[in-house]
Amino acid sequence: MDWAALPPLTMLRAFEAAARNGGFSAAGRELNVTHAAIAQQVRALEGRLGLRLMRREGRGVALTLEGRRLADGLGRGLETMRHALGEAARDAVSRPVRLSLTPKFSAYWLMPRLGRFRAQHPDIELLVSPTPELVDLSTGAFDLAIRFGQGGWPGLSPELLVPSAHVVVATPGLLARHRVDAPADLLDMPWVQETETDEWFTWLTAHGVTPRPKRDILHLPGYMALAAMRSGEGVGLTARNFVQDEIDAGSLVALFDEPGKPETGYWLLQAPHPGGTPRRTLHAVVEWLRAEAAEALDAAPQNGS
Fold first, then answer.
1. Which residues pair with 265 in a beta bridge?
2. pTM (2 decimals)?
3. Which of 100, 188, 205, 249 could form a disulfide with 145 if both were Cys (CB 3.0 to 4.6 A apart)?
4. What value, to the nearest 5°, has the Cα angle with vertex 164 and ends 160 and 166?
């Protein structure tokens, strides 16, 4: 469609309102402009089309034959636009808020809290997609994502939601069978890691160890990987928040314990919102996540990470 060939919408709205209300003054009140502004827009439309659309009749105006045809068509067109915009607005409010997050975070942080969310917001439909992959929020397929890291994510609005260092852990029973004095010693131990990640390779490389081909790696979804670490199936990397109780109790041992950077943890990611304001349901989910994260941080022991 050649939009440049169409008259400006202000002309069309002014003419349609004048035709429907039977005069410039009533149309001006409806559109919150002066009757002179309506008349000026109508005359400009007539000049653009080369047609007489209205003529004075008593204290009002009457439509010519061409004006009546145009007014009828514009009325139907504007009503279609109003209906489409109303449907779009209702869809934005009623469609689910779609959240992408890692399986571990979903299982060990979000799931225990979902009952409170549903109690507070029974009118909001939430779609949760646990995946280790970082989704592209610009496509509109998801509204929010939660990912572990130290910030970044260009083009998004990142907000540190749950501060937490990552830590390598193993059970005392597993460590009794393997001597571990240096990061390189972990090469000889079985590993457990989240599916579709290279956690062991990344951690060892960051600690100056060149990983070699390894077969005794158990790849599991995040929530299963953590259960396998707790049962002694292998050494693994996880957020310290999820295992702090086991570390304190001695059922898991933190290896090469090191403090994380202050900005390390799970980040809430959003794409920029059109107009700068998220829809009501999305805003409610974000505020709920912030409140839950703040409550958990306040309740955490001061010596925890």
1. 149, 163
2. 0.64
3. 100
4. 125
